Amino acid sequence: MKKLQYVFMALAALCFAIPAFADGGSSAINLVPIGAGLGMGLAAGLCGIGEGHAVGSAVEALARNPGARSNIFTFLILGLALIESLTLFTLAIVFAKM
Question: Fewest 10 Å CB contacts: which of 23, 73, 90, 98?
Answer without folding.
Answer: 23
